[in-house]
Amino acid sequence: MEIRFDEILNRLDIGVLIVDKNYYVIYANKKAKEIFNLDLISPITCYSLFYQYSDPCVSCVKEYLTPEKPEAKLTLSLGKKLYLIEYRYFSEDKIMIFIRDMDEESYYKNSYFKLLENIPFLIIFIKKGKIKYLNSFSEKNLGYTKQELFDKTFTELIISPEERFNIEKTFNEVLAEEKEEEILINLVNREGKSKTYLGKCFAINDIDKEKILIVSGMDVTEFLDLRQRLDNIHKTQSFGSFLRSMVHDFNNILQQVGEYLKDIKENINNPQKINKYLNLTEKTLSSWIDLNKLLLDYTKEFREIEKKRTEIIGFMKNNLELFQLIAGSHIFIQFDFNYLSSAWVPGDESFWRYIFLNFISNAKDAIEGEGTISLIFRTKIEEGEKYLLIFIKDTGCGIPEEYIDKIFQPFFTTKEKSSGLGLFLVKSHINNIGGKIEVESEVAKGTVFKVYIPLVEVKKVEKERKRPEETYIVLVEDEEEIRKNLKEILEREGYKVYAFFSGKEVKENLEKIERADLLISDLHLPDIKGGELYQILKQKFPNIDVIFLTGDIFGLAELPSNRVILKPFSIND
């Protein structure tokens, strides 16, 4: 039996040692002798073979191998090879030790997957769109087992429908270009709840040289919820003061319009003066529209600046009366254009009216009693680029040094009735058109803002005004005068218009509407919300677009910025 047992062990492709209770090797098979170059002529302990120690590692062995734990596994590097060492009780006074060759790459791969299993992040392997692996964290967060998700299509199973297209596009780009991409994805778990993960996706080659997409991410749902709540707190706390800070300007505009109307009444028989006051009234009302756009900026954070150009010198001259009106009678506004007769800059006139109203309003608040606001225009070449340099200089109280670096931060203010957003928005907009702002100030002497604006070339090309292609518009507005005026203007521009005063009237005449390309509707009609009316029309006309009209400033943040016009507005809007 002993000969047969030895023959069997010698045929094994693993090393086998049997040691006594003192850890001396009393048997070694052929493979073990090869591994350790062992002849067993001299007594030797297992720990001498494994660790080249002169003292036994009894405590170590006892930690892993006890009668209650009759087996133990360790990995050990011997020479340049890696081995798996298994200890097993052979009898009460003998231990059998198995020494197995390990593929080092396989070992580290196994260790890698153990690491993936325990890491507290989402880890998903995707091959040809199918899930091939997900770690324990993914199982727990998504509510599915590995077996349930294995070989399922990743996007169809857990990505919300509206994100599928963008996610698939990103995945395809990563696979095609072999690049790493940051992603923010919303995954829906078994219960239908969405969680947001911030992470990366990248591609590797598997054993058969096919691409595997690896998606990793950390759960940032709570963080985003917290940030949103903090943003809402800021909005809620500041929006009231933001509106209050604008009421004064609104009242100034209304008061001035009233004065102009009174002047028109008093000069009813003087056409020249009537024309003058009508022009002033129109400019003043334009500033009301610009203030409405300021509200849109606030609720949408940033307004996309149209790719238009403004001749700024002529614009400033045309708006002098308005700027003086905002500054008040005790503050003198003066222009200094030097030799500049014209200068073209990015942005439309509404944009620049908004920018200068902010600067003038701030300068006005800084001046106690009488003072001066100077607007100085120069050209400057910097790093090969030609800029218009605008100085906005006031004789106000100045800005303390400790506040200079904070004045462009959102919500920073030292004024009781200020939102702290004006200069933040101004700087953001100036940066968006390729400019920059610098500021210098001295307490009790005044402040100078330096605004650098890239100059642009404008070629005047006479373009024939094109009439729109045949477009059918459904106009719904409960205010009769607004509805009639809009219908008249739109029809004059060449549009076909169906005009209604309520949602009920639209429903009653729905069969008569043969075509509808665009809905222009009051956001809050007496009998229906504009959004609901849009969905009704969309069922019959799937490609219909929409523009909402509203005077409700509190509902602006819920609407896409390109689908809302705030009342009052101009036809150009």
From TrEMBL:
Stretches assigned to the Histidine kinase domain: 245-457
Source organism superkingdom: Bacteria
Domain Response regulatory intervals: 472-573
Keyword Phosphoprotein set for record: yes
Enzyme kind, highest EC tier: transferase
Cited SUPFAM superfamilies: ATPase domain of HSP90 chaperone/DNA topoisomerase II/histidine kinase (SSF55874), CheY-like (SSF52172), PYP-like sensor domain (PAS domain) (SSF55785)
A Pfam family recorded for this sequence: PAS_8
InterPro entries listed in its UniProt record: CheY-like_superfamily (IPR011006), HATPase_C_sf (IPR036890), HATPase_dom (IPR003594), His_kinase_dom (IPR005467), PAS (IPR000014), PAS-like_dom_sf (IPR035965), Sig_transdc_His_kin-like_C (IPR004358), Sig_transdc_resp-reg_receiver (IPR001789)
GO molecular function, one term: phosphorelay sensor kinase activity
E.C. number: 2.7.13.3
Reaction(s) catalysed by this chain's protein: ATP + protein L-histidine = ADP + protein N-phospho-L-histidine
Residues with the 4-aspartylphosphate modification: D522
Record's keyword terms, sorted: Phosphoprotein
Domain (PAS) ranges: 128-178
Presence of the UniProt keyword Phosphoprotein in the record: yes
PANTHER family, per the entry: HYBRID SIGNAL TRANSDUCTION HISTIDINE KINASE C (PTHR43547:SF2), TWO-COMPONENT HISTIDINE KINASE (PTHR43547)
Protein's name in the database: histidine kinase
Gene source species: Thermodesulfobacterium geofontis
Taxonomic lineage: Bacteria, Pseudomonadati, Thermodesulfobacteriota, Thermodesulfobacteria, Thermodesulfobacteriales
